Amino acid sequence: MSSSDIKALVFDVFGTVVDWRTSVSRQAAQFGAKHGISADWNQFADDWRAGYHTGMARVNSGEDEWKIVDQIHRERLGVILEQYGFPPIAEDELAEFNKAWHRLDGWPDATSGLNRLKSKYIIASLSNGNIALLTNMAKYANLPWDAVLSAELAGRYKTHPRAYQKTAELLGLKYDQVMLVAAHNGDLRGAINAGLKAALVTRPDEFGCSQQADLEPEPDFDYFAKDFHDLAEQLGCE
Amino acid sequence: MSSSDIKALVFDVFGTVVDWRTSVSRQAAQFGAKHGISADWNQFADDWRAGYHTGMARVNSGEDEWKIVDQIHRERLGVILEQYGFPPIAEDELAEFNKAWHRLDGWPDATSGLNRLKSKYIIASLSNGNIALLTNMAKYANLPWDAVLSAELAGRYKTHPRAYQKTAELLGLKYDQVMLVAAHNGDLRGAINAGLKAALVTRPDEFGCSQQADLEPEPDFDYFAKDFHDLAEQLGCE
Q1: Looking at beta carbons, which pairs linking B27-31 to residues 24 or more positions away fall under 8 Å?
Q2: Which residues have C-beta within 8 Å of that of residue A71, sequence separation ≥ 6?
Q3: Is B98 near chain A, with CB under 8 Å?
Q4: Which residues contact B94 (CB under 8 A, 6 or more apart)?
Q5: Within an 8 Å CB–CB cutoff, is residue A135 touching chain B?
Q6: Among candidate residues A167, A114, A191, the one with its CA nearest the CA of residue A145
Q7: Which residues touch B237 (CB under 8 Å, ≥6 apart)?
Q8: Residue B222 pLDDT greater than 80, yes or no
Q9: Is some CB atom of chain B closer than 8 A to the CB atom of A124?
């Protein structure tokens, strides 16, 4: 495959573009301090995140009706606040804290690397996060998307093929003119199954120091890069 | 209403942000020269555009199934090329010429004005144009959208209320936290009927020198500006 056949790069966002764990942990520590709770806030972020995959799986299986990630996060938040011993908190304040996921910092190469890739390709998000979350995050973290796209627009979460295919269709492109960039092999496998191209960018710090998975590409991935600048160089961007 | 209640500005695009008539006319003149056809190319642009409203009305009435604006433009193109005496042309070349509507120049204040408005508000397209068209146009004309949204995502064309309401819902906002910015009173009336706010920005040159309509706001519009900088000043943007 030549990189000139690719017209658009679509990006997994949580973990691939932004460092959700550090960003949520920091905001949770502030929230905890306000309410007199001490905890391991990295663990809190992991525990909050743990509801994400379960919530999406229930939607894709048909067990639950469609619900956006903001709602999945909010439901999980209710569970873990109780586990961590928080007192009752007003709904407005919870809704605001739930938007911690809209305020995630990009990895150090995110904005500059995306700008390089944007000079040659259409760049768009392809996250399970909902459009509002991704739009607010792009403003917060200065992510220069050409388009904010999401599994929300397909009504199916990744790794359902329709999540990838709907994104290519909205961009007016054939599936193999679109490449998913992600830090997670399972997501990239989903993209390949849907007919897209796949680029692994490793993010060894996503889960702190305990990560073993997703550090090596599978044999049929198209590109393998250590960050967005590395990918930009391999794709011949200036 | 205070401008601080507004969280997002959503924009009509054809005529409001970009000068479609001059841009399409210029590309049509080149296309005509290549095929040995002389014509009034402003009139050609108007005639091409004339199919747009009819095509959308047929979709909203249920007479036609959903079709994207690229398809509406392509069907209309077939009709007018015959009227203007063009010889048969290969489909690939027609598909490329049909993308003239993806390559429209912004009005002189478009990029700089949008950047000022973006400093204080979420800014997004809310066009009947499809996502691919709007994404390519944003790259071509340097339109710094926070999100590229479209009636395509509602499956209903403006001025159907769902086109406006779906956009607000995708942004996670209440209808009255979103203001449509448009150069067309009918579009703004549709926004108000759907529960959004409305700002008229006049574009007296959209149709050349013959325009009489859409130069004055209706009494219940929220803002009335002569260009995006004027609107930015009224909204207190730097």
Answers
A1: B27/B97, B27/B100, B27/B103, B28/B100, B31/B97, B31/B100
A2: none
A3: no
A4: B74, B77, B78, B81
A5: yes
A6: A114
A7: B116, B117, B119, B120, B121
A8: yes
A9: yes
Give the model's confidence band at B2: pLDDT under 50 very low, under 70 low, under 90 confident, else very high.
low
The answer to whether residue B146 neighbours chain A at the CB level (below 8 Å) is yes
> What count of other Cβ atoms lies within 10 Å of the Cβ of residue A1?
10
Q: How many CB atoms lie within 10 A of CB B173?
A: 18
Contact A131 B171 (CB under 8 A): yes
Q: What is the pLDDT of residues B164-209, one digit of tens each?
A: 999 999 999 999 999 999 999 999 999 999 999 999 999 998 888 7
Domain B20-102 sits in CATH 1.10.150.240 = yes
CB contact under 8 A, A146 and B139: yes
pLDDT of residue B186: 97
User: In angstroms, rounded to a whole number, what is the distance separating the alpha carbons of residues B112 and B108?
Assistant: 8
Contact yes or no for A14/A20 (Cβ under 8 A) = yes
B172, two tokens: 């996670």
In total, chain B counts a number of residues equal to: 238
CA distance B126 to chain A (A): 13
| Domain boundaries defined on chain B | 3-19+104-234, 20-102
The predicted model scores a pTM of 0.95
Q: In Å, what is the CA distance from A202 to each residue of A8, A84, A211, A230, B104?
A: 20, 32, 11, 11, 38
Beta carbons of A139 and B133 less than 8 Å apart: no
Q: CA-to-CA distance for B208 and B229, rounded, in angstroms?
A: 22
Cβ-proximal residues to B49 (8 Å cutoff; 6+ apart), any chain:
B20, B21, B24
Q: ipTM of this model?
A: 0.95
What is the pLDDT, as a whole number, of residue A2? Answer: 64
Say whether B20-102 and B3-19+104-234 share the same fold.
Answer: no
Residues 6 or more apart in contact with residue B198 via CB below 8 angstroms: B179, B180, B182, B188, B189, B191, B192, B220, B221, B222, B223
* CA nearest to B119 within chain A: A139
Chain mean position to CA A199: 15
CA–CA gap between residue A151 and residue B126 (Å, rounded) = 20
Q: Does domain A3-19+104-234 have CATH number 3.40.50.1000?
A: yes
